[in-house]
Amino acid sequence: MVGKGGKIMNFFLQGLTMGFAIEAPIGLANLFVINNALTQSRRRSYIAAFFVAFFDIALSIACFFGIGAIMKQFEWLKIAILLFGSLIVIYMGINLLRAETSEIGSKDTELTMFKTISTAFVMIWFNPQAIIDGSLMLGAFQVTLPVNSYPIFIGGVVIASFVWFIGLNLVIAKFKDKFNAKVLRTINMVCGAVIILYGLKLFYNFITLIIH
To answer: Which ranges does the record mark as transmembrane (predicted)?
Structure first.
């Protein structure tokens, strides 16, 4: 028979593994962290990773308690997020494509604190698909848990998010000096192109919703 301590650890591990499962697939947040680790100063890249984790945790908690249901109830909210989110994401991707090789990693192109925080917020919260997917995963899991286990489960999700994004930044930043300017430029362009594709997909979803 599993004791109280064992049950607590079990709920925590469920939250931890669920958190890693949500973060691991390559998406906008991971691309943003990777790009910052390669092109920004180490201090600025850690700040970016911290705020990505912070906003991701806030979104996970919101998904756990049913923000996806709110979006389904208010169709206009989903449409608005899709429109503004897609345009902002496309704009960010274009900026990455336009960055010159000589500019990558220079102090002149280092993001301001405001831009770092606002971009991290947009990457996490202006992606309706991520909100809905997160709600399906975390919301579905919530109904299987006793109410008193919620803080323990969410604690596991919180730790997974911080470990993932800070760890990803650490690994990429540690090895970025091994990349020359040409490689950095290529990575920058790939990240920019993928981000634009994400933005176009969001915009396509917006058009689909409008038509139907």
So the answer is: 12-34, 46-70, 76-99, 111-132, 152-175, 187-211
Q: In which domain, by residue range, is 39 found? A: 4-211
What is the rounded CA–CA span in Å between residue 145 and residue 125? 26
Helices (H) and strands (E) in the chain, counts: 9, 0
Task: Write down the mean pLDDT value for the chain.
Answer: 79
Backbone angles phi and psi of 49, in degrees to 5 = -65, -40
Residue predicted with more confidence, 174 or 137: 174
Question: Which amino acid type is present at position 151?
Answer: P
Residue 127 scores a pLDDT above 50: yes
Residue 68 CA to residue 31 CA, distance in Å, equals 24
42, 100, 109, 177 alpha-carbon torsion, rounded to 10°: 10
Name the residue with higher pLDDT: 157 or 95. 157
CB 135 within 8 Å of CB 68: yes
| pLDDT at site 181 | 64
Integer Rg of the chain from CA: 19
Instruction: Single out the residue of 153, 160, 184 nearest to residue 35, CA to CA.
Output: 184
Domains of the chain: total? 1
Nearest to 143 by CA among 69, 74, 57: 69
List, in order, residues 6 or more apart from 173 with CB less than 8 Å away. 37, 38, 42, 45, 46
pLDDT tens for 75-125 read 777 778 778 777 877 887 787 777 654 444 544 456 788 888 888 898 888
C-alpha to C-alpha distance for 182 and 135, rounded to whole angstroms: 40
